[in-house]
């Protein structure tokens, strides 16, 4: 693959045109062949991964863990390809169709976006996962992964590209940027006219950098300062179960809860109960004055900055509020518009919360952790959009498509 | 209204929150009151417009014409408000709803974008038109019109804002940028965190400038290098009717045809016939060598640049092609992805054209001029998107909305 980024863009566009003409059965068969190839060549993949794993002494344990491949992990990655093969293909679906006043038959048809760029960190599984979702939705993809995973990524792409070639297709449907310098990344983010969309996947810092620097259209993903508001009229056990699940089941992810808002009428009773349930997880509690009065030494003071912070850790900030209005106002001020929950038995307040909270997903009596492409039943997820244009919330295959109007006439001209 | 652009953004956000809670009937009633107010105050509007019309001696006639208001034109603008009142309200509509594996009831609900920025030229009617569509879709709007129309725009906005105020609403749902300097326009385009989307309306030059400079999300509209391909198996009269309509009915607009591709087997017969039909419109013809051989002195040579150019004028470039494949290849190379037509009686070639052309709208046997929100039956149009993200083709009220997932549970937590 050439190091010239514009050349990669041109190659991707040519491949994208071919992908747009593929039939679903052909795409599915190729995805299954890719899965098989990954399993067959797992020894080669592990060799490449081993090269990446040398010189990682200075890196954090969880970083190295995400970078590490095993035979079992390769098997799981390959199984992911088989699952993508089984998903419904959005391409060609018609969202709406009607006949206009002039008698034209108009259909709004789903078509590929074209060329998708993905910028991600040192997780080799993202290479295969993103390539599979782009391929299934008939998009060419240009992947720019973290430099620490380069050997693994190149080997994985080599295997996928060989399958494309064996099937008579343009291997440039899947390309890796080999030059992992910041200069090349910057040029990638400015590849106007070639990249139809750029999707960053990874840490908040990576996403923010891409959003700030990119000149091509970006879909912002990931940041989640998620709240659970527990209403006065609510079930104490349900509230605690949801808080523990939303906070502790997987605290590092974007749909984990970061803030607990508690109605003042139940704070004295609920807060010690919830704190007790959180104890086994060693959650650090921070709170406003009222929460401190209730929990005493078991809670630290929260600063103004806390209300803005996505901890991605076993930390929870707690605020006692006077009403659902206060809760809504606080959430709309501090949230990242990701996922917000109310725990209540009151009909009016549940509706107020659902109507007035500005977020990709709003919940009554459920954990924020459900904001996820798999949990929503999309069978896949390329990320969770926290922006309002094009896609909002979990993005599956359909979010990797656009539409075109297909119009059939009998000689109509405009009056 | 303050001249500080960030302050305008803050005010718009506050107003947007209120707009999100309005009921449809209330919005419609206010739109009708706005229409009435414009008619009642037409003398004041004409006075303000007169100020704009002073010192326009150096401006082109058609520019001054677009800037000029008359009592009749004000009546038509007011009637537009009544029409927007009659359109269906997209807010609250549910695109899809289902129950997931965990038993959560998930609905994808249409909600406002929030704050919309519009940058446009010296057409006072756009002020009212854009304000009405944003208000009906519960979005706050910040309008930045051409400096030549400032007096008219301020007076129109004053009248609309007074109606909002009389109805107990925040007048800042509709704001005008009074400072029409380039510096302020630049700061407007960088109003990240306040503007949810910026839509430029006007000339290709204006749109290009906004797309290049903006840091907020932009919806690109308007550029249309549209083609009509006439197949070997086609109806000669239908082909000529479509060409004349697409080229001459309103040549200055983006969905007008700019290029004619003609199959070689019918070129000798069709081209003189079509040229004859174009004669009454004094269309300047430019063509490739084969077209020149057929028409002789009646056609000028076309340059490479011609194939890229959107004339927006009585000029047509003509190319003779060998096949539908050649036509598709040429169009996908040179088009602006707006609107493309094939004239054919052949089923296979019609399907190939519809499938393989990359454009917002593709037609069989119809004029490209139909790409329009009103013609498509949307009842309104804020512009025609030529980009692939969020909206593609004519944008009506629904394209001014986003979605949120509204999820109702009974205490579900994630396993």
TrEMBL record, chains A, B:
Keyword Amino-acid biosynthesis recorded: yes
Any one GO biological process: L-proline biosynthetic process
SUPFAM superfamilies: ALDH-like
Pathway(s) served: Amino-acid biosynthesis; L-proline biosynthesis; L-glutamate 5-semialdehyde from L-glutamate: step 2/2
Keywords: Amino-acid biosynthesis, Cytoplasm, NADP, Oxidoreductase, Proline biosynthesis
This enzyme's EC code(s): 1.2.1.41
A Gene Ontology cellular-component term: cytoplasm
GO molecular function, one term: NADP binding
Protein localization: Cytoplasm
Catalysed reaction equations from the record: L-glutamate 5-semialdehyde + phosphate + NADP(+) = L-glutamyl 5-phosphate + NADPH + H(+)
Protein name: Gamma-glutamyl phosphate reductase
Family in the record: Belongs to the gamma-glutamyl phosphate reductase family.
Gene transcribed to yield this protein: proA
InterPro entries to which the protein is assigned, alphabetical: Ald_DH/histidinol_DH (IPR016161), Ald_DH_C (IPR016163), Ald_DH_N (IPR016162), Aldehyde_DH_dom (IPR015590), G-glutamylP_reductase_CS (IPR020593), Glu-5-SA_DH (IPR012134), GPR_dom (IPR000965)
A Pfam entry, by short name: Aldedh
Organism: Liquorilactobacillus sucicola DSM 21376 = JCM 15457
Biological role stated in the UniProt entry: Catalyzes the NADPH-dependent reduction of L-glutamate 5-phosphate into L-glutamate 5-semialdehyde and phosphate. The product spontaneously undergoes cyclization to form 1-pyrroline-5-carboxylate.
The UniProt record lists the keyword Amino-acid biosynthesis: yes
Aldehyde dehydrogenase domain residues: 9-302, 315-405
Listed Gene3D superfamilies: Aldehyde Dehydrogenase, Chain A, domain 1, Aldehyde Dehydrogenase, Chain A, domain 2
Database matches in HAMAP family: ProA
Listed CDD domains: ALDH_F18-19_ProA-GPR
């Amino acid at each position: 693959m050439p190091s010239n980024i514009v050349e990669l863009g041109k190659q991707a566009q040519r491949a994208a045109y071919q992908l747009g003409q593929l039939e679903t059965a052909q795409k599915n068969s190729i995805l299954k062949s890719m899965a098989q190839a990954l399993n067959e060549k797992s020894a080669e993949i592990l060799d490449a991964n081993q090269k990446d794993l040398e010189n990682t002494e200075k890196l954090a344990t969880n970083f190295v863990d995400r970078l590490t491949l095993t035979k079992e992990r390769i098997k799981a990655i390959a199984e992911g390809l088989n699952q993508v093969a089984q998903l419904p293909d959005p391409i060609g679906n018609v969202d709406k169709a009607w006949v206009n006043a002039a008698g034209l038959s108009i259909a709004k048809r789903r078509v590929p976006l074209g060329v998708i760029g993905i910028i991600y960190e040192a997780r080799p599984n993202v290479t295969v996962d993103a390539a599979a979702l782009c391929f299934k939705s008939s998009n060419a993809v240009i992947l720019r992964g973290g430099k620490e995973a380069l050997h693994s990524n190149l080997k994985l792409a080599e295997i996928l590209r060989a399958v494309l070639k064996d099937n008579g297709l343009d291997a440039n449907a899947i390309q890796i940027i080999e030059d992992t310098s910041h200069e090349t990344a910057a040029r990638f983010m400015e590849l106007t006219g070639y990249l139809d969309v750029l999707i960053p996947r990874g840490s908040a810092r990576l996403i923010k950098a891409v959003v700030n620097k990119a000149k091509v259209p970006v879909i912002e993903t990931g940041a989640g300062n998620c709240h659970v508001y527990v209403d006065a009229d609510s079930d104490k056990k349900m509230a605690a179960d949801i808080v523990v699940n939303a906070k502790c089941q997987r605290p590092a992810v974007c749909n984990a809860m970061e803030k607990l808002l508690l109605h003042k009428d139940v704070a004295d009773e609920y807060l010690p109960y919830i704190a007790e349930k959180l104890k086994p997880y060693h959650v650090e509690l921070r709170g406003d004055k009222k929460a401190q009065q209730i929990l005493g030494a078991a809670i630290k003071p929260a600063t103004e900055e806390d209300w803005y912070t996505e901890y991605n850790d076993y930390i929870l900030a707690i605020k006692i509020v006077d009403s659902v209005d206060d809760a809504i106002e606080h959430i709309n001020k501090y949230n990242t518009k990701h996922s917000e929950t109310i725990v209540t038995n009151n009909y009016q307040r549940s509706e107020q919360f659902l109507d007035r909270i500005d977020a990709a997903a709003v919940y009554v009596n459920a954990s924020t952790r459900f904001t996820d492409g798999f949990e929503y039943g999309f069978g896949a997820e390329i990320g969770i959009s926290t922006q309002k244009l094009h896609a909002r919330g979990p993005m599956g295959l359909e979010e990797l498509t656009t539409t075109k109007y297909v119009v059939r006439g009998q000689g109509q001209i405009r009056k």
